[in-house]
Amino acid sequence: MIRTVEPTQRQFGEVDAAFASDEGVGDRTLAFWQRPHHDYFGRQAALGRRMLWCERFRLAARLDTDAALDLTRAGLEADDKKD
Fold this sequence. Notes:
- By secondary structure, this protein is α+β, with helices and mostly antiparallel strands.
- It has one domain: Sulfate adenylyltransferase (Roll), CATH 3.10.400.10.
- Helix content is 48%, strand content 23%.
- It contains three helices and two strands.
- A two-stranded antiparallel sheet has the order 1-2.
- Helix 1 crosses helix 2.
- The protein is extended.
- It starts with a strand and ends with a helix.
């Protein structure tokens, strides 16, 4: 289970090397972060105007598989009741 600690909204070009490194994917460089995100977001809208949610989070708890499935089912059931 994760807990969001810093949600920020930025344009694609405002994402910095520190955020790319914190995401922890690939070689943790900004260039590595930009390639797949550019491909994905480039298909969604013009990157220069598109605002992204950049989220830093921390691990709040480790759940075993059964506990994680129970929480998922409970959330889905709650969503069904809202409709």
